[in-house]
Amino acid sequence: MLTKERLFYLLDKVEQNRIIHVKELAKELDVSESTIRRDLAELEESGKLRRIRGGAIKSSGGDIVTDHKEILMQDRMRIHYDLKERICKKAAALVKDGECVFIDGGTTLVPLMEYLQDRPVRIVTHNYLAVAKLRNPKALVTVIGGEYMSRYDMGGGTMAAADLEQFQFDHAFIGCAGIDSTTGIAYTTEMETREMKKIAMENSAHSYLLIDHSKMQVHGFCKFSPLVAFDYVITDENDLETEYTENFLIAE
Fold it and tell me: Tell me: the pLDDT tens digits for 167-190?
């Protein structure tokens, strides 16, 4: 297969599946993994897709994340899941028995439920992906309802916000669409999720932002918080050196 034909094949594959993997593609096309990585680098440079560890995802139009270009949550669950587990394990270690925590929406926070559900803590969440991980939990879990936001698999809207206002948390674990370490701003994709995050942070003694390295230097549609508002930004790595990354906590 010629290089041009291979590039068209990769584009068609990422359009259909949203996520593609280097090892699988190398096997399918009978070429080396380094060849596939070079092809993906070329396609990323032209803005056709975005590389991730071990593969690539459909491009969201550069480094701007917007609501209508977000990939499906089922697909996002598979992206960097091992890193999300490391990050959530680090976050769970900050929680003491008897405390009350908020788990935000999004796939990054899902493993946190697995680390906390067998402990004597109280968990409040509107993240239905996380709720699906419950297996006869020891923790007392309160699920926030409201309007079902199918794109994000979570509860939202005015009813959910009003319910969330009633709680006081020891720890609020928050996700986001991306951060800009130069300006020190965290972004979300739209206003509804932004409101839930802000309420949880305002009602919590401690707040933490959980992100993996793929969300570094990624702008979103909606600003929601300066990084300095968090006790820690918990992530898998930090090769950025700015004044806004001093409170980064690295999950080994």
Answer: 999 999 999 988 987 889 999 877
The answer to whether 227 and 247 have CB atoms below 8 angstroms apart is yes
pTM of the entire predicted model: 0.73
CA 242 to chain CA centroid, nearest Å: 22
**Among the listed residues 53, 55, 24, the one whose alpha carbon sits nearest the alpha carbon of residue 39:** 55
Domains delineated in the chain: 3-59 (1.10.10.10), 76-250 (3.40.50.1360)
Q: In angstroms, rounded to a whole number, what is the distance separating the alpha carbons of residues 67 and 220?
A: 9
Mean pLDDT of 48-75: 62
Taking only the tens place, the pLDDT of each residue in 196-235 is: 999 999 999 999 999 988 788 777 668 899 999 999 999 9
β-strand pairing of 19-21 with 178-180 = unpaired
Spatial separation of the C-alpha atoms in residues 35 and 194, rounded to whole Å: 41
